[in-house]
Amino acid sequence: MSFSRLIFGGVALSVLVGALLVEAYTNAEFHPDHTVSAGQRTEVPAEVIGGGPIIDTRNGTVRSYRLPARTIALIFDDGPDPEWTPRVVEVLRRHHVNATFFVVGSQVIRHPDIVTELARAGDEIGVHTFTHPQLDRLPRWQRELEYSQTQLAVVHATGAKSALLRLPYSSSARAIDDTEWPLIREAGGLGYLTIMADTDSRDWSTPGVDAIVAGATPPGDSGAIVPMHDGGGDRAQTVAALDKFIPLMQRRGYTFTTVSQGLARTLAGQAVVEAPAGAVDQRRAFALATAVVLADWVTASLRVLFLVAGLLTIARTVALLLLAGRHARRRRAASWRWGPPVRLPVSVIVPAYNEKEGIEAAVRSLAGGDHPGGIEVVVVDDGSTDDTAALVEALRLPNVRVARIPNGGKPNALNAGVALAQHDLIVMVDGDTVFEPDSIRHLVQPFADSSVGAVAGNVKVGNRRSIVARWQHIEYVIGFNLDRRLYDILRCMPTIPGAIGAFRREALQDIGGISHDTLAEDTDATMALCRTGWRVVYEERARAWTEAPATLRQLWLQRYRWSYGTMQAMWKHRRSILDRGPSGRFGRIGLPFVAFFGIALPLLAPLIDIMLVYGLCFSSWMVTTGAWLAMFAMQVLTAVVAFRFDKEKLRALWVLPLQQIVYRQLMYLVLLQSLGTALTGARLRWHKLHRAGSAAAAAPAPPVAPLMVVPGRAEGPERAAGQAGRHARAREESPFLDRQGHQPPSKKPRKPGPGAAAVPTLATTTTARARATSADSTP
Are 101 and 76 in contact (CB under 8 A)? Predict the structure, then answer.
């Protein structure tokens, strides 16, 4: 991975984490204001407890003020609210009244237009903190942050600062205790006037319209600051009570004003509250607003994507349970037959590059198969630098041939093997794969159906000792084999595994052989076959045991190539979406399935983990845990069904919870890296994986093929000369190679159409292969 990609990934991750933290802070859950019982008052001055609702502790002094007689200042807390604030304002305007709105900063950032209109209409704006916390539970730096961020939000909306502060969950001056008093003095030191209340409408508890009016009404002719709420819940009763309260007080001779105007009357016109914002404050306010808006957008996008991921997961689970179950029941029915038993001879092609660790076990298992038509094994040594070819030759198996060619890559080796093969049923096998005795016999039975052009076998992980390999075992059973049942039913198989696949020679000719255009030659070839009209099916009884990567690094390299190659193949065959016939069917069914469930769902799956962490830290942990467990339960259900279908022991699923913590995250990163490579147009080279020869560790013991020398078979130089002669004759007769061992132009497909036309000719063999692969090309 390049340094630039690391930087990009780090920046993207930082933006995401930062956005989530901002969102978590601005969305801090709060309860509407309510009356808090007063505690001890040993430190609260008597003049404050018995004084007015406007408390000034600025400049080290302590003073309190009341409004003049028959003067009411309406104050509204917890807004702005896009639903209730406009309805409150509508009542105020109808009665020609202005009020003071103590706003929550996070809401101002999201609805600045409401606050702008309030200030423009003559209403007053005060500070009610940024997230409405219980301030005495916060450290001083966080309290100051609550005030300053709200001040910036107000500056962003109005262009002016406010010196009015109302503490959350506060009531009247009579209720100030030793817990609240230090907060008031601290606010004074920051330049704020603290605003309490004279009456208590208790509208936050929705006691009814008449009760709200009664609680808000001041005694006699005394002036009063009357608190109500325009946010924090359903304020229908507040709106109705306000429409009743204002004309009632006006008939009693009261005038309505804002807090600052009422204080100015008390102080004989002295201005005490508002100051314009400077350029620095304006820039800081803009930065804050941008951060919150960006965080809201990111979080909203994540919620939508999380919903999409959930729907895709549910859709995939339902489709797998229904269609894969239908596939299993159909194939295991006593009446199921592909047709008459297939007893035609089979050629097995084994491309091998430095496979000395496992090639002997692989070849023995192939040569000793019980297929009644006979098995020919062609091992194509792709320029190995170890003893791969010599080890195979030393087996001296009568039905095994070895062809040595210069290194040219796996597609080239496969095409060379097909050219040398003597039979029309071709099985392609990786050099580290071990077959069961009946695997080839089962694998070719679908060719009894003349529409079948290729068959995908059942790949099993042989080395299951390490936890990394066990995770892959689970993935192979669930993510690969169960999916193939689904694709078989839909007739849009996207991949025949390189470990075990069978082809008609005619089908390979129709697609021009195995192409080297992508790093997933098996996926590319399978898509091409589907587009030309051949049916590709899955045969679960044909089992092959492969060696999975035993370390995380080896796993990363393998999956990186797989993911990138799959994206290449999808891009190569993208035009099939617009085609008609078989190509169009694959393009409109197969490609979307791979795109949604093979690319989009794995890319979106990390959102489950992100939202889990976010929910546990900043939301209801019970709801979050319940949602995650529900998603995990669906995965467990899918796993159990898949293991039952494949007749695997369920005890392997004990590592499934651990798979959610490490393995899935690794696959996320691999897919993201592959996507980044694809989008930037970078070229990815093959990586030769280290093999330990442990593919057969969990496989049934293969039969031991006898060592024998075929009568008349030449040895030493004579044998080499004879082999060279056979290879020369194969080139003369092969539709895949010309007389110089190079590839001729591809022939016209059996079923002409856009699918076949989009597929390039065979990869060149022997000498003309320098552009797509490196010297360690065939894994």
Answer: yes
